[in-house]
């Protein structure tokens, strides 16, 4: 049962016929893991907390840096030098004491990701390097965990939702990472500060829709966004029978780090 205070807090959800009291209870019971507490992870974390998602995990080994504050809205000037997961947790709980925030101040790697994602209903990729993105995809596909992919660079972003066993996965579209250093990171090429807010809120929306069981998820569709042109575009994605992790004859049956350990999970410094 919802308390009087909760009825008031979530009143704008409750009056939606697609949500109502039962839907809000589903959000309370939901468990979402955010990997990366930077540009993408910040709006995702704040909006999921505001929505009343009951358990939110957030994983990142980094600390807040002055250069983060142009876009990573979960962190404030006073948080410089503080672990990002703790900085984000503080803001999330201050916004909504109903939620439980579990923090993982560690790099996500092949040795720990399966154990961490096992406790969650939905996973969100908020990282900024290909090795981490492929690792998250493989871990979620092998564990049967639905997740939201997101990526940003300069003025452009993209996102797609993966439901293992039902939809194409990230490797159906991109079978293997590009060569190391072939594509610059946000720290090298830059990123407009508002961009992760646009993509991150879309990813948070996908998590909420999944928990509610409402609407059409971004499965089988890569949504791209250009801030300079202010245009969204949908690119159809089909399951690949040759996909190395979800295809007819998968070659990836256990988790491995794509690159050396120092680079595998350089989490969302974007």
The chain-level mean pLDDT equals: 93
Radius of gyration, in Å, reads 18 Å
Order of secondary-structure elements: HHHEHEHEHEHEEHHHEEH
CATH architecture: 3-Layer(aba) Sandwich
In short:
The chain is built from 11 helices and 8 strands.
Description:
The C terminus is likely disordered. The chain has one domain: NAD(P)-binding Rossmann-like Domain (Rossmann fold, 3-Layer(aba) Sandwich). With 270 residues, the chain is α/β, with parallel strands linked by helices. The protein has an eight-stranded mixed sheet with strand order 3-2-1-4-5-6-7-8, sandwiched between helices. 34% of the residues lie in helices and 17% in strands.
Topology:
Blueprint: H1 4-9, H2 11-14, H3 20-29, E1 31-35, H4 41-51, E2 55-59, H5 84-95, E3 100-104, H6 113-117, E4 122-125, H7 130-143, E5 147-153, E6 156-162, H8 170-173, H9 186-189, H10 195-212, E7 221-226, E8 231-236, H11 261-264
Parallel strand pairs: 1-2, 1-4, 2-3, 4-5
Antiparallel strand pairs: 5-6, 6-7, 7-8
Helix pairs in contact: 4-5, 4-10
Keywords:
8-stranded mixed beta sheet, single chain, globular, 270 residues, disordered C terminus, alpha/beta, 11 helices, Rossmann fold, 8 strands
């Amino acid at each position: 049962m919802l308390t009087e205070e909760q009825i008031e807090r979530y009143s704008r959800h409750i009056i939606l016929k697609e949500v109502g009291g039962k839907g809000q209870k589903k959000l309370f019971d939901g468990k979402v893991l955010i990997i990366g507490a930077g540009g993408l992870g910040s709006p995702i974390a704040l909006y999921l907390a505001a929505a009343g998602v009951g358990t939110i995990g957030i994983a990142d080994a980094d600390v807040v840096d002055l250069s983060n504050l142009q876009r990573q809205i979960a962190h404030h000037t006073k948080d410089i030098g503080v672990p990002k997961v703790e900085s984000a947790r503080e803001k999330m709980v201050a916004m909504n004491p109903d939620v439980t925030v579990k923090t993982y101040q560690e790099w996500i790697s092949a040795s720990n990701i399966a154990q961490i994602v096992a406790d969650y209903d939905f996973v969100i990729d908020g990282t900024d390097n290909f090795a981490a993105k492929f690792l998250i995809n493989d871990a979620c596909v092998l564990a049967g965990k639905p997740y939201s992919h997101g990526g940003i660079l300069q003025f452009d972003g993209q996102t797609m939702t993966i439901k293992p066993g039902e939809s194409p996965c990230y490797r159906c579209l991109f079978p293997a990472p590009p060569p190391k250093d072939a594509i610059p990171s946000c720290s090298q090429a830059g990123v407009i500060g508002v961009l992760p807010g646009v993509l991150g809120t879309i990813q948070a929306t996908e998590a909420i829709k999944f928990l509610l069981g409402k609407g059409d998820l971004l499965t089988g569709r890569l949504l791209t966004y250009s801030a300079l042109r202010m245009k969204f575009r949908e690119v159809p994605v089909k399951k690949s029978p040759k996909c190395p992790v979800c295809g007819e004859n998968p070659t990836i049956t256990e988790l491995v780090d794509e690159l050396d350990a120092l680079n595998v999970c350089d989490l969302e410094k974007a």
